[in-house]
Every structure is written in C-alpha cells, then in structure tokens.
Amino acid sequence: MVQAWYMDKSADDPRRPHRGEPARPVGLEQLRGLGVLYWKLDADKYENDPELEKIRKERNYSWMDIITICKDKLPNYEEKVKMFYEEHLHLDDEIRYILDGSGYFDVRDQEDRWIRIFMEKGDMITLPAGMYHRFTLDEKNYVKAMRLFVGDPVWTAYSRPADHFEARGQYLEFLAQTA
Known about the structure:
The chain is an alpha+beta fold.
C-alpha cells in the first residue's frame, strides 16, 4: 500500500524521509483527489505481467524504457539527481513503475504544501500533466524504474513557475472540480 505524508520544512538532505511533526499521513483517496494514480504490482514478473499489460492497454501507455539511477549506471549522475529534484511539471503524465530500489516523489497539494510519496519495488504511479512535482532517491541511492508514455516520449521538464502552459490550466481546473 502506498505510503505518503506531509513533509517538514527542513532543507536537510532530500534523501531523508522528512516526515512532518506531528505526523500527517496522506491516504490514497487524497492522492486521487490530486490526480495521482497508484497501483501495486509484482515487479518480479514485469516482463510478462497481465496486470501491467491491462493497465498499459487501458491507459494507452504504448512506449516504455527502463532507467537505473545510481552512481555506477547513470551518466552525469550528480547533475541528473539534482535536476530530478528541481520542482517542475510536464505537459504529459509522468508514469513510473519501480522495479527495484526506492525513492520519493514529492507533489503539491491544493494549498501548495509538499506531500512525499515513498516509492518502492512494485509501486506504479501516474502524476498528471501540469502537476508540480520532483523526485529524489532515498538514502539507499538506488532505483530501477520503468518509464511509460502515451505515444513517443517527451522528456521536457518546465521549472516552476510554468503556469502559462495549457496543461497547468487543465490541471488547476481538475483540482477546482474535485474540491
């Protein structure tokens, strides 16, 4: 089951959990209200998983690759990890399936507060287009993830502020309708 919580305001090492005090857990229903989708799958059978294939077909996730984020495998590791952690949005959904290791996606709630989502082996998440977010590894410094896209991949991240994009406007309309 997904683990998520409101973050503290510490500027300490982003790879730490940063749980707010007092603890304020965030449930799946609240994440859904932000447009975040979540599945728990069997990552050991990702190559032949009928459940993954069903999700890909239903949601038109036609393109995929696998990225390993660790010092030994990712060129320009330090630069890329810093880039992933800069607050940004995409014009398309961001879909990630953790095949091994772990890390955190941080997303903004309706009041612009950070929610941290712990992702580990078997977790699959979709962040909607237009949602401000960031990613970091945890203290294990390793994650292997499947990246999925509808159609050809678009890697462009737009740093905040990026409110002028249509995808951001559509996301804000979605939030207003779910409020």
